[in-house]
Design goal:
Elements: H1 19-29, H2 35-45, H3 49-56, E1 73-82, E2 88-97, E3 103-109, H4 117-127, E4 132-136, H5 149-158, H6 161-176, E5 181-190, H7 192-204, E6 210-214, E7 230-238, H8 240-243, H9 246-256, E8 260-269, H10 282-299
Parallel strand pairs: 3-4, 3-5, 5-6, 6-7, 7-8
Antiparallel strand pairs: 1-2, 2-4
Helix pairs in contact: 1-2, 2-3, 6-7
C-alpha cells in the first residue's frame, strides 16, 4: 500500500483510534520518528492502524473558523527587525480588529512546525474578540512555513534554538510597542509554542501581563521567580510527557507567588485544541478558548 496516499473509507474518529497509535503520533509530532516510520509502525501495531495514523495527519481546510475576509478584522503579513535571531529579521501574521483606537495585544505562538493555517486561524479568532494579534513564523529565516508539517518540523528542528527563542522574544516586544497596541501584552501558544509562552513569561518579567500555555513544557524552576504575568495553564488529560512536569512547576509558581490557575480537560490528548486532526475535542477546545479569551480580557484591560 502507498503510505503517501490517503485511504478511502469513512473518516476515523478519535474514539476509534487505538491509544498506542496516539502515542506513536505524539512521538512523530515531536520529531522522534519521521512520517513514513510513523505510518509503518502504526500499520504493524493494530488492525486498521494505517487508517488510524493517516486520520491523525492534519487537514487544514477543516481548521478555518474565521474567514480571511471576515469583516470584523483585517489581516496582513508584516516584517520587523529581530536582532540576535536566526536572520536578523522576522515575519508575522498581524490581525487587527476593525475600528479605531488601540487594542490589547496577544502573541500567538505556533507548534514545532512553523506558522501553519491553524495558527493563523487562532490569530484571527483572537482579533475578532478585540485583540491585536500577531502570529510570528519562526521559519521565516529559512523561507517560511513550507506548506506541510513534515518539512516544517524538519526546518524548525534544524534552526539554532536559542536564536529561535530570541526571534519570539523580539516578536513579543515588537507587538507590545506596536502603534495599535495599548502596551498590555498577552501570549498564548501550543505544544512547543506553549513552552515558549512559559519561556517568555520568565524572560519578559513585568513586560508581559498574561500567558496561556497549551500543553507546553514547563520552564526551569529556577527561573519561575522572574514571572510577573498571570498564567492560565491548559493541559490534556492524556499527556504524560507534559503533565509529569506539573508538580515541580506548580511548586515553583506557588513559592514565587505567581498568579496562576491550571485546567486539565478530561478525555483529551495532547493537541486537543487543534481542529485539523481527530485529536480535536470540540467541547474541551471551546471551553479552553472561552477561558483564554476571558483571562486575557481580565488581565489586559
Amino acid at each position: 500500500m502507498n503510505m503517501n496516499e490517503p485511504v478511502t473509507h469513512e473518516p476515523v474518529t478519535q474514539l476509534q483510534i487505538d491509544r498506542r497509535v496516539f502515542e506513536l503520533y505524539d512521538e512523530y509530532c515531536h520529531g522522534g520518528i519521521d512520517r513514513r516510520e510513523f505510518l509503518l509502525r502504526a500499520s504493524a501495531l493494530v488492525v486498521g492502524g494505517l487508517a488510524m495514523a493517516q486520520a491523525l495527519l492534519p487537514r487544514y481546510a477543516q481548521a478555518q473558523t474565521i474567514s480571511f475576509t471576515d469583516t470584523r478584522m483585517k489581516a496582513q503579513y508584516v516584517n520587523y527587525p529581530s536582532p540576535g535571531g536566526n536572520s536578523g529579521q522576522m515575519r508575522g501574521y498581524l490581525v487587527q480588529p476593525v475600528g479605531s483606537g488601540s487594542f490589547p495585544a496577544v502573541l500567538v505562538i505556533h507548534e514545532n512546525r512553523g506558522l501553519n493555517p491553524y495558527i493563523e486561524d487562532v490569530a484571527r479568532r483572537a482579533a475578532v474578540e478585540g485583540f491585536l494579534a500577531l502570529a510570528p513564523d519562526g521559519l521565516f529565516p529559512v523561507g517560511g512555513y513550507p506548506g506541510n508539517d513534515d518539512d516544517g518540523r524538519t526546518l524548525q528542528g534544524n534552526l539554532d534554538q536559542g536564536k529561535l527563542r530570541t526571534d519570539f522574544l523580539n516578536s513579543a516586544r515588537f507587538l507590545k510597542s506596536h502603534r495599535l497596541a495599548t502596551g498590555k501584552l498577552g501570549v498564548t501558544g501550543f505544544c512547543w509554542g506553549g513552552g515558549t509562552v512559559n519561556y517568555l513569561a520568565v524572560e519578559l518579567g513585568a513586560q508581559m501581563q498574561a500567558g496561556v500555555p497549551y500543553y507546553g513544557p514547563a520552564p526551569e524552576s529556577a527561573g519561575v521567580e522572574k514571572i510577573k504575568a498571570a498564567l492560565l495553564i491548559q493541559y490534556a488529560e492524556n499527556d504524560p510527557r507534559i503533565n509529569d512536569m506539573w508538580p515541580a512547576f506548580e511548586a515553583a509558581l506557588k513559592a514565587a507567588g505567581v498568579r496562576h490557575e491550571m485546567h486539565k480537560y478530561p478525555g483529551t490528548q495532547h493537541g486537543f485544541h487543534n481542529n485539523s486532526t481527530p485529536r480535536y475535542v470540540e467541547a474541551a477546545a471551546k471551553l479552553s478558548w472561552e477561558r483564554t479569551i476571558a483571562f486575557f480580557k481580565k488581565n489586559l484591560a
